[in-house]
Amino acid sequence: MSKKLLVPLIVLFSSILVFFISKPVYEEYYRTYCPSVVRKSELTLPEYKNATPIVTKSEEKKGGYYMKTFEFTTPDSPEAVMAFYTEALQNAGWRVVSQTNNILSLNEKRGLPIYGVTMYLSSSEHGTTVDVQFSYAPCLYY
């Protein structure tokens, strides 16, 4: 067999092999992260007890997608705010995705739509400012 014919055959065979391997992997990902349960009501975040009035920065809803960003301040420490939301949301079935000194990110994937929240905390002499991104979306694109 000539080298000119061998290279295209290898490429074709590799492409077919990748397709048949990646399809079950994609289907497994889809099945794992796309619950079949549709929520009967929307999820909400608990209000922080010592927060100043919430200031909404933006809110957008298109189709099955929703994003709201807002901010509040509190005289409490960033650690106290993180502890409150971590405990309250985990008790409600949310899962911590990542947590650093000043960022907390959680999601809730037991039903559709899938919910997520990321909080950015910064401290100053006046207390803690918390910037929140709260969203929900249809499955897989989250």
Give a structural overview.
With 142 residues, the protein is an alpha+beta fold. It has two domains: 1-33; 55-137, START domain (Alpha-D-Glucose-1,6-Bisphosphate, Chain A, domain 4), CATH 3.30.530.20. Helices cover 32% and strands 36% of the residues. It is built from two helices and six strands. Strands 1-2-6-5-4-3 form a six-stranded antiparallel β-sheet, with helices on one face. The longest helix is centred in the first third of the chain and has 31 residues, at 3-33. It is elongated, with a radius of gyration of 22 Å.
In short:
This protein has 142 residues and is of the alpha+beta class. It contains two helices and six strands, in the order αββαββββ.
What key attributes describe this structure?
142 residues, alpha+beta, Alpha-D-Glucose-1,6-Bisphosphate, Chain A, domain 4, 2 helices, 6 strands
